[in-house]
Amino acid sequence: MLCAGKKSYFAAAVCIMTVTSMLAVSYLKIQRLSHQPKVIQEGRGCRGKIAISTITALEGNKTFIISPYFDDRESKLTRLIGIVHHEDVKQLYCWFCCQANGKIYVSKAKIDVHSDRFGFPYGAADIVCLEPQNCDPTHVSIHQSPYGNIDQLPRFEIKNRKPETFSVDFTVCISTMFGNYNNVLQFIQSMEMYKILGVQKVVIYKNNCSHLMEKVLKFYIEEGTVEVIPWPINSHLRVSSKWRFMQDGTHIGYYGQITALNDCIYRNMGRSKFVVLNDADEIILPLKHPDWKTMMNSLQEQNPGTGVFLFENHIFPETVSSHMFNISSWNTVPGVNILQHVYREPDRKDVINPRKMIVDPRKVIQTSVHSVLRAYGKSVNVPMDVALIYHCRKALQGNLPRESLIRDTTLWRYNSSLIMNVNKVLSQTMLQTQN
């Protein structure tokens, strides 16, 4: 016996720890070997049909693939962003077709369902597969078995395969637009504020919106600011407009918002220096700096090694208005005029205000809505005297009188540029009534 002849408790403890460590190392080695790609076919071309939908259901309708991304931050692997049933999906395999040598490799996937599922049976998941070392596959197929015919499986293009140089500093990810969204004026104001603050790209995961909103999106797409990702999640799952499971038979919360946010981070990992995760009715307002670039340079200098910056959310109730900036030509445009809402709710006792984020996407592995779940860098809460999130929406403390609210006119620092830019968009989209 390995531990024979040891008399002292200390020696026994050392012995047990040694054996445990050896077993753990052996187990991890076996696990890694089981996930190594194996050749199953040779001399075949890659003939499966390429998937073109944003959301693709696999056989059995328990797994839905959004998109695969090459990820070499730890090892050479493909990370597929998807949605799975957290109990029913136990085993998946990646099928890689290597055009260079005509071989088809199968790799057992690690299925990592995100911890922030909020009780729903379906949740965001990373489906992670080691790639063959001797080829760089351009496409991958997913199957429940390591056996079968690859020609019958949809093929997904592996994004981020080729390194890119940053084309933009800031990309805003908005997810998800649903419920026949028609808050047109506030959306345009948010877009123009983003641009004033230094945003070059806004990615929107769109489920549905009004015809008027479609017209505005078309304008911003043609301008080059907006990229719309179709998000037909309700064609596959029963979606909830709530974030927490209510025992109502729905499958996934808030139209799959968390999955969309994760996809947006990986989609922009190689092309954007920062990714901003917030909603269309939220604007991160700097208090000490004129724009986000100056603010982030300062924050990074003060917080080296930080990959996630969290900003505190503050509610500016849409029911409490100022008489300032009542612009008559805007009154025919549906939606909220944020310039008239400069009273914010005070902090609530024993309630922590939620936060939204500006992240370095290359340091994020998994994100939730108000924090990252896994990342390489540190996370830092940005003090409120540096910046806050202006969130104009329905009141959370609806019974408070106006005198209990805090007058905060930070937004008005940008009023001249904002009014001019909004008028330009309204004029070009034919939404503005001339007086």
Describe the structure.
The protein is α+β, with helices and mostly antiparallel strands. The chain has two domains: 40-157, Sandwich (Immunoglobulin-like); 168-431, Spore Coat Polysaccharide Biosynthesis Protein SpsA, Chain A, CATH 3.90.550. The protein is built from six helices and 23 strands. Strands 11, 12, 13, 14, 15, 16, 18, 21 and 22 form a nine-stranded mixed β-sheet that branches. Strands 1-6-5-9-10 form a five-stranded antiparallel β-sheet, with no helix packed on it. A five-stranded antiparallel β-sheet has the order 2-3-4-8-7, covered by helices on one side. The longest helix is centred in the first third of the chain and has 26 residues, at 9-34. The protein is globular and about 75 Å long. Mean pLDDT is 91; it is low at 1-6 and 25-33.
Give start-end ranges of low-pLDDT stretches: 1-6, 25-33
Kindly state the mean pLDDT as a whole number?
A: 91
What is the strand content?
25-35%
CATH C-level category of the largest domain: Alpha Beta
Q: Which fold name corresponds to the CATH topology of the largest domain?
A: Spore Coat Polysaccharide Biosynthesis Protein SpsA, Chain A
Q: Label the CATH architecture of the largest domain.
A: Alpha-Beta Complex
Q: What gap, in angstroms, lies between the N and C termini? A: 95 Å
Total number of distinct structural domains? 2
What radius of gyration results from the CA coordinates?
25 Å
What overall form do the CA principal axes indicate? globular
Biggest beta-sheet profile:
9 strands, mixed
How helix-rich are the residues, as a percent range? 10-25%
Count of beta strands: 23
Class inferred from helices and paired strands: alpha+beta
Helix count equals 6
Order of helices and strands: HEEEEEEEEEEEHEHEHEEHEEEEEEEEH
Transmembrane segments: 9-28
Organism: Urocynchramus pylzowi
Subcellular location: Membrane
Pfam families: Glyco_transf_92
